[in-house]
Amino acid sequence: MNRILNQKRLHQLQQFHPKLENVWYLVASATFSVCNRPEEIPLIYHQALSTQNGKPIDDRAKIIHELLESNRSDSLKADSLMESINETYKNPIQYEVQITKKLREALLITYPLGGLPKAINSLSQLKSVTPSALLPCVNQDVDITNPNLNTDALFQDTLRANPKTIEEYKKVTDDGIKYWNNVYNKVSNKVFHNISKSYPDMIYFIIKHTYGPLFSFNKILNEKEKCLIIVSALVPQDVDAQLYGHLKGALNAGCDKEVVSLIQDMSIMISTWCGVRSSNKISKL
C-alpha cells in the first residue's frame, strides 16, 4: 500500500492554520484512523514531537526521514529506528509526555465513532514508534485465564476509575447525561428519545459506556479538544445528521466557529488523500 504522507503533506497539515497549532496532530490522526490508514499516524506523532512553538527541535527531523523511508516489515530497520527513537527521547520533557498522552486519548475517542478494530490498529501503530520512556506502565503479571483472578487487577493501570459501588456507577451515568446535554443542548430530549425508540439498548450503551466513561473524561483532553476530534472522526463517514449534531455541540462547548470549520476542511482534505469519498452535501455551520 502506497504511503499517503510525505514531507510536504506533513508540513501542510502542521501549518494548516495558526489556530490549529495545538490540535492539528490530534485531528489528523483521528481522521486517518477512521479512514483506515493507521500507518500514517507514526509520522504525524513524530512530526508533532519534533517541533515546539512552531520551531524544529534539534535533529529530530532525522526520525521523520527514517519513518518516511522505512519499510515496517523489515525487522532490522524497525529495530534500528526504535534505537534512534529511544535514544532521542530517553529523557522526555513534559511537552513530549503531553503530546503522547493526548494522541493516545484522541485515538481512544475514535473507537465508538469509527469502529473498535480501527482504533486498536491505530493505537498499535502509535505504540510501535512510541519511545520506551513514554509507553504506559502496565502490569504484565496478570493472568486473565486464571479462574481465581481478582478482576479489579485487570484495570489497575487505567487512567479512568474502575467503579465498584452503586454511587460510583451512578456518577458515570450522571457524567454521561451531563455531557450529552452539553452537546445537544435544546434538542437533548428529542435526540435521546429518537434513539431510544429505535432500540433502548443503544441509548443505554451510548450514555453508560461512551458518553459517561469516555467522552466526559477530561483529565487529558479538554472539552474543546474532544469536540474537535469527534467532528474530525465523523467527517469522512457520510453521517450527516450525527456530524451536524456534533458541529453544534462543538459550538455549545465554546469552540470558535472558524476553528470548527477549519477542522472540517482539514478532515475533508485528508479523506480525499485517502480516497474516502463523502457525499457532495456535508453539514457546515
Automatic annotation (TrEMBL):
InterPro entries: AhpD-like, PTS1_Protein. This is Carboxymuconolactone decarboxylase-like domain-containing protein. It comes from Henningerozyma blattae (strain ATCC 34711 / CBS 6284 / DSM 70876 / NBRC 10599 / NRRL Y-10934 / UCD 77-7).
